Amino acid sequence: MQKQFEKGTPGFDLVRGFALRDRLPLQLRLDVLDVVFDLRPAARIMARVEGEVEGICRELLELGCFISVGKGVRWQRKSHGIACHDWFDDHGPDDKLEAMTLLYIGRTETSAIRAREADETRDDNVFGLALGYPQCCIDWVASRRRVPELAECFDLYTRDGLYDPLLWPGAMALDAQLTPHYPCSVECADSLKITRARLELLKGLECAPVIRRIQDARSVCYVMDAAGRVTAPVAAESLAGVRLARPAFPAAQRLNLVP
Ligand SMILES: [Zn+2]
C-alpha cells in the first residue's frame, strides 16, 4: 500500500471512507480503488449529472486521480435493478431516463486521456488494453465479436448449475462482482489475480461491510427466467422452469475469509 494511504494517515481515512460509501455502486468504488492502488492503469465510471458528478470528481481529485470527462452525456434508465451495469439508452431524454457523465480516471493525466480516447475508438480491443484488462480476456471478447451480457454468465461461468464464489461475474446482479471485465474462463489466472488483489485491498482498508456484501452475494442462489432476466437471491425450492446457479463452495472458504 502506498505511503500516503497507510493506516493512521489522513489518506487511509479518505480512501477507506470512499470504499465504504454505500450510496455509490460498489462497481464504481472498486474501479476507483483499482486505479488509486495501481491494480489497473485506468477505469471508466459513470456519475449522475444531477447532484452526483461534482462530489465524485472532488473526491477523485483528493485521492490523487486524474480525470478526463467524456463528451456529451449518456442516458440511463432510472432505478433499474442493476445499478452497476453500464449500458446506455441513447433515445433520451425523457422522464424515465437520467443523464450520466462518463469519467475516465487514471493515476496520470496521460492514462486518463488515453482511456477516453480508446473508448472513443469504439474498439473493445483498444479500450480493454487502456483499462488494463487481461490480454487473454480481450482476445476472447474479440473472438466472440461482442462483450457478454449478464444472462450469459450462466452458460459461461457455471458447471452443472454451480458457480465459483471467487470468480462469478453473475454477482453483477447484486452489484458485487470482483472483476472489472468478463473473464475469458473461470480458470483465467489473470482474472483470478485481480479478484484476489481486490479482496486483499479491501481487507487492508478494513472494509468489513464491503467484504461481507461480496461474501453474501456469493452465498446465494441466482436465477435466470425465460426472458433472460437474472435475479438473486432466491429460494431454490419455490421455483420451477428457471435456470439456477448456486455456489460450488462456501464463499468464506473460497474467498479466504476468516469465518
Ligand atoms: Zn483471461
The main sheet comes to:
5 strands, mixed
Distance between the termini: 25 Å
Can you give the mean pLDDT? 89
Could you give the order of the helices and strands?
A: HHEHEEEHHHHEEHHEEEH
Structural class: alpha+beta
Outline the low-pLDDT stretches: 80-86
Bound molecules: zinc ion
Tell me the number of helical segments per DSSP (H or I, 4 or more residues long).
Answer: 10
Q: So what's the overall shape?
A: globular
As a percent range, the share of strand residues is 15-25%
Radius of gyration: 18 Å
Q: Give the tally of structural domains.
A: 2
Helix content: 25-40%
Strand order of the largest sheet: 5-6-9-7-8
What's the β-strand tally? 9
Would you mind describing this structure in some detail?
The protein has 259 residues and is of the alpha+beta class. The protein has 2 domains: 127 residues, no CATH class; 127 residues, no CATH class. Helices cover 36% and strands 15% of the residues. The chain contains 10 helices and 9 strands. The strands form 2 sheets. A 5-stranded mixed beta sheet has the order 5-6-9-7-8. Strands 1, 2, 3 and 4 form a 4-stranded antiparallel beta sheet that branches. Strand 5 and strand 6 form a beta hairpin. Helix 4 packs antiparallel against helix 5 and helix 5 packs antiparallel against helix 6. The longest helix has 16 residues. It is globular, with a radius of gyration of 18 Å. Zinc ion (ZN) binds next to helix 6 and helix 8. The site of zinc ion has 8 residues, from helix 6 and helix 8.
